[in-house]
Write a structure and sequence with these properties.
This protein is α+β, with helices and mostly antiparallel strands and 363 residues long. The protein is 17% helix and 40% strand.
Length: 363
């Protein structure tokens, strides 16, 4: 036997009455939460027993707080304090009604030194005092830039705090010019700038080590080797210039006139170089030539019965021979100075001349 259960339509899941009840319940819960929060706020405001004034760089506002100390009051007011800020009275001071809390915020700036960049906080506007606070001491040749301008110790201190300080450390160097060393410091960027600072005049042939465009590094030794005037006679030219070298040969190589083959110089190439020396370069060229020359023919006398005394008849005409010689020719500055025969050989033998005569042969 089955049992039937009747369900009221108002209790079905999709019933309008059930949905209305659920929405009413949620709305009641929301109103309750808001009411609790408002009550807490009102209670807090009601029982906040202290009113303090907070002065931040001259801007003053009053707040009510139930905090017990200056630090708690600032935290309660949502005010962040940096380590460099000045707070009066101290954070641990207990509050009294109408207490005034004074905050002087530190100035923030960027400090660059030796390529290192740091952010610092300070209450000073004097660049030198700021450096002292950071335990930075300027050397006698160091340079300080304040907001990208060179700092002058005699200038009036601005009331406006700087935004950017840059310290450029001077580098040590030794300048050796004609064996006279100078030791100093400089903030120059290159070797050439150091030479300009020392008013060094250079000739084109002078040698500088390291080169002028080399970046200046701490402890660098700059050596100048001075050139000397010289007169050169070479390849048909007369040159007066300057050069650097230990010997005559060094000078010629530096100036682009190297000795080749049998070339020589006056004075000799190993002669020590001195100022105002006159050097003559003798270009020597040796080559070989082949020269031809005739070989005289011989005259052969034969007697002839058909000829009378003192009569002669040429039976065979003589023909000169040909010989060649290998000759070594030496030229100095395009002038022949010697010819030496190395070898001779016959190319064509001579043909003797045969002459017939009558009577006794003539001497």
């Amino acid at each position: 036997m089955s049992r039937q259960i009747k369900v009221s339509p108002t209790l079905l899941p999709n019933s309008p009455n059930l949905l209305a009840r659920r929405w009413f319940g949620l709305l009641f819960l929301a109103v309750l939460v808001v009411g609790i929060l408002i009550t807490i706020f009102l209670v807090k405001e009601t029982f906040a027993h202290t009113t303090v004034a907070i002065d931040i760089n001259g801007n003053v506002r009053e707040v009510r707080t139930d905090a017990h100390t200056v630090g708690e009051a600032l935290q309660d007011a949502g005010i962040l304090i940096d380590a460099a800020d000045k707070v009066t009275p101290p954070l641990e001071t207990r509050l009294n009604d109408k207490t005034t809390i004074t905050i002087v915020k530190a100035n923030q700036l960027v400090l660059e030194i030796g390529g290192e960049v740091r952010r610092v906080y300070t209450h000073s506007t004097d660049p030198l005092i700021i450096l002292t606070e950071q335990s930075i001491t300027l050397g006698p040749k160091d340079v300080l830039y304040v907001d990208n301008r060179p700092y002058q110790p005699s200038q009036t201190i601005s009331k406006t705090p700087p935004h950017y300080l840059q310290v450029i450390r001077a580098k040590n160097y030794t300048l050796i010019d004609q064996d006279q060393p100078i030791t100093d410091q400089s903030v120059a960027h290159t070797v050439g700038e150091v030479l300009d600072e020392n008013h060094v005049t250079l000739y084109l042939a002078d040698q500088i080590s390291p080169s002028p465009n080399t970046p200046l590094i701490d402890g660098v030794e700059i050596v100048i080797t001075r050139s000397n005037p010289v007169q050169i006679s070479v390849d048909g030219q007369q040159l007066r210039t300057r050069a650097v070298g230990t010997t005559v040969n060094d000078v010629l190589n530096m100036l682009g006139f190297p000795l080749l083959g049998f070339d020589y110089t006056i004075p000799a190439e190993n002669t020590p170089f001195s100022s105002d020396m006159a050097i003559q370069v003798v270009r020597v060229v040796e080559d070989f030539e082949v020269e031809q020359s005739p070989i005289p023919f011989e005259v052969v006398m034969v007697s002839a019965n058909d000829l009378g005394p003192d009569e002669q008849r040429i039976i065979q005409a003589g023909v000169p021979g040909v010989q060649e010689a290998r000759v070594r020719v030496r030229r100095e500055n395009d002038q022949i100075v010697s010819r030496v025969i190395q070898e001779i050989w016959t190319v064509v033998d001579p043909i003797p001349q045969i002459v017939a005569y009558g009577g006794s042969p003539q001497e």
